[in-house]
Amino acid sequence: MTLCLYSKCIEMDTNQQTINSKAKEESILDILRSTNKQNELDTTANTLDTMKLEISDTLSESSSCEGSSTNSIPIDHSFNEDEVKETECGMNKESVYQSPLAVLLSSSESFNRSLGECANDLPDEQNLPKKSGLVYGDNHGGGINPNRTNNKNFESTFLPSRSAPKPPVEEKNKKKILLSGNKLSLNKIERGDSIHSVKTRSKKCYGLNPIDTKSDKKSRSIFNLAKRPFLKSKSVGSNMSSGSSSRSISASISTPYDAKHIHHVGVSDSGAYTGLPAEWKNLLISQGITAQEQNETENKQTLQNVVEFYKSEILNLNDKPASKERSISNLLSDDDETDVLSVISPETILSKDSVKVDNSDLVDNTKNADLIEKMSSEVPPIPKAPKISLNDNAETAKPRDISRRAVNKSAANKEFFNSLSKLCILEDPKRLYKNFTEIGHGASGAVFKADDNTETVALKKINIKSHPNKDLILLEIETMKKYTHDNVIEFKNAFFFTSELWVSMEFMDGGNLADVVMNCVLSNNQIGFICKKVLGGINFLHKNGIIHRDIKSDNILINEKGEVKISDFGFCALIREDQGKRNTMVGTPYWMAPEVVNRQNYDQKIDIWSLGIMIIEMVDGEPPYMNETPLRALYLIAKNGTPDFQTKDGLCEVGKDFMYKCLTYDPQDRPSADELLTHRFITDINSDGSIIVPLVKLTKMKKDQE
Ligand SMILES: Nc1ncnc2c1ncn2[C@@H]1O[C@H](COP(=O)(O)OP(=O)(O)OP(=O)(O)O)[C@@H](O)[C@H]1O
Fold first, then answer.
1. What's the mean pLDDT when you consider all of the chain?
2. Closest CA relative to residue 556, chosen from 514, 615, 605
3. Which of 9, 321, 448, 660 has the fewest CB atoms within 10 Å, i.e. is most exposed?
């Protein structure tokens, strides 16, 4: 568990050389309490006691600095950023305080890099996060229509997960306690060791320097200490057994020297931080969180949730928690896929005649059985545990048995491709269709219009290899194949050929609703008509236990007949009766329901919220907070609750009432699709599809002019 010293990181007053940790411990314990981590709570409480005693004991021996008030550290305006700052405690002066956001962002090891560097490094496009539902533009998941990236800060908010930069020069093999910003790390502290400082480049670092050595890949935040039993049982001054196994903490902390006060950080009566370094403020502001928002005591929990969410799901910095949606198919590595895909290639193991297209029954199980057998047998052999020769003088090393992981991967390969081949025709769609024209591009790949002798279809090419969640591929195909409804896009076939996966579906010649809302002003009746159709589709899905999870105008397709259909089941999820709620974060930030943003369990009601946001799109042309960075948008969704229109007179009162009902903050109070179908805004609509045909035509005309 990575724990953050949220809002009350340990304050060290280097003048008094005391750690004023009492109130801060409480904060830490509060966080643990609120997350029901009782075990870690107990352990942390013990650890904090131990640490407090040990550190303050040691520090109290020092007397070289003059005292000052706990919340007040004088500023040294002569601070030279290029200078390497250090104290004997390894505490970077400018890292003494961190705002909640900075603390949270820094709590992941992989983000433990210079914030300055982060801010300066433009994200490498290839490194942009590609995680389910939270990547934008043309990458994976919940993509935003590229035409709508009017968000100026947009790109700069994607800080790819990077490995921490090289640690600063330090004495090799030194056993140490590191106190760097909000982190206190122990590295093989043994009896008699003294605590040494680690040089941290102050320039652009601000307490987020790596404090690690390459040997330690795990987060070494203060809370990791809580997991270490040797600390739990340790009492100050106790005798420790010698030797490396005795991991004692009988280290002495030498006195600070040459201490300079860089920043005067305090906490005002209102609980707000004062005197934060400008660079910190800049970072937070660049993320769109204003200074005032950072310090709103009542919203600190919200900010914490949102930053955690942003960090783990968008920046993808955290280790993913075990998720129900992570299955063995996700254990596939790129290499594994390449192996299997090359094996499955019809050119190598299937003669062209061995697979025939049969639309009534996509699966030829006999042939697939051979195929899967072949695939499984070709899975790379399980690597044997490396042999290690041990001599008497060397430290013993126990090899880790990795064979289980390899077995899992093999099974994952087999299962995924087995399922996929059952769902697909093993044929090249490019041989069946002609006149391929690209008509769209989403997170999972390009979408083409093509035709055979009988009809025009849309063909979506799904990039299996880079897809973040193989289960979702299967689910998308299964869902489209299984469920047919007037307001759900009609699935035709899936093709799997030479490692390419294609899905063919009915072609909607009116394109997507996003283009319509950006190009046309919609009337009450047109909005009501579209709501009615989309709600009908949503209701059908919900009744079948499916949450779409990515309802937005980009995923609503229309045609010149005036039909309205939900598409893109790339993030849909099944709600089983025994399961009820889900907690995986997928979707697109601006359309996300507060319960998703707040990392709570959620159910079908999140689609209702997204429908409400879509109504705002139809009135304003864009969803709320579209000009904000995703992080701030998430924060505002969680903090502000039900958003409002920018165009005040854009919708009639009945329509507004419908919209507000969809955007009810508490999902328990938010009506279901079934209930909303009885709302007057829906029942009053008597028009047929012709009502939206002018919108399709105008949009086409405007797009042609572009
Ligand atoms: N059946 C279709 N008929 C016409 N156009 C389509 C069809 N399917 C998709 N498109 C076009 O392609 C775009 C991308 O399609 P889709 O949303 O299914 O892809 P995706 O990769 O899942 O995208 P994302 O997850 O980013 O929304 C749509 O917004 C739409 O413009």
1. 62
2. 514
3. 321
486 plus 608 within the same structural domain: no
Q: Which of 324, 479, 329, 352 is nearest to 417 (CA)?
A: 329
Structure tokens, 345 = 């290639």
Q: What pLDDT score does 317 carry?
A: 41
Three state DSSP letters for 27-55: HHHHHHHHCCCHHHHHHHHHHHHHHHHHH
Among 462, 568, 572, 591, which residue has the most ligand 1 atoms within 8 Å of its CB, making it the best to mutate? 568
pLDDT greater than 60 at residue 507: yes
**Tell me, what's the pLDDT at 294?**
72
From CA 624, how far away is CA 644, in angstroms rounded? 8
Amino acid 60 reads S
Q: For the chain, what is the domain count?
A: 2
Distance of CA 561 to the CA centre of its chain: 39
Mutation test of ligand 1: which of 128, 148, 444, 447 has the most ligand atoms closer than 8 Å to its C-beta? 447
Average pLDDT over residues 222-248: 32
Q: How many CB atoms sit inside 10 A of residue 126's CB?
A: 8
Give the CA angle between residues 365, 369, 375 to the nearest 5°: 135
- Would you state the pLDDT for residue 521? 96
> Residue 494 belongs to what domain range?
424-506
Cβ–ligand 1 contact at 503 (below 6 Å): no
DSSP state of 494: E
Options 550, 554, 568, 607, the catalytic residue: 550
CA–CA distances in Å: residue 517 to residues 223, 521, 697: 49, 7, 13
CA of 539 to the centre of ligand 1 (A): 21
550 is catalytic: yes
Tokens of 195: 């605590």
User: ipTM of this predicted complex?
Assistant: 0.96
| Dihedral (CA of 535, 541, 547, 550) sign | negative
Let me know whether 446 and 481 are in one domain.
Answer: yes
Residue 445 pLDDT class (50, 70, 90 cuts): confident
Domain end call among 506, 527, 549: 506
Residue-wise pLDDT tens digits, 660-702: 999 999 999 999 999 999 999 999 999 999 999 999 999 999 9
Look at residue 182 and tell me if it is in a domain.
no
In the reported structure, the alpha carbon of residue 138 is separated from the centroid of ligand 1 by a whole-number distance in angstroms of: 11
For residue 59, the CA-to-ligand 1 centroid distance in Å is 62
Closest residue by Cα to residue 606 from 560, 657, 541, 556: 541
3-state DSSP of 269-284: CCCCEECCCHHHHHHH
State pLDDT tens for residues 533-570: 999 999 999 999 889 999 999 999 999 999 999 998 87
Residue 183 lies in a domain: no
Nearest alpha-carbon partner for 55 in 93, 25, 89: 89
Distance between CA atoms of residues 53 and 250, nearest Å: 12
Closest ligand 1 atom to Cα of 555: 17
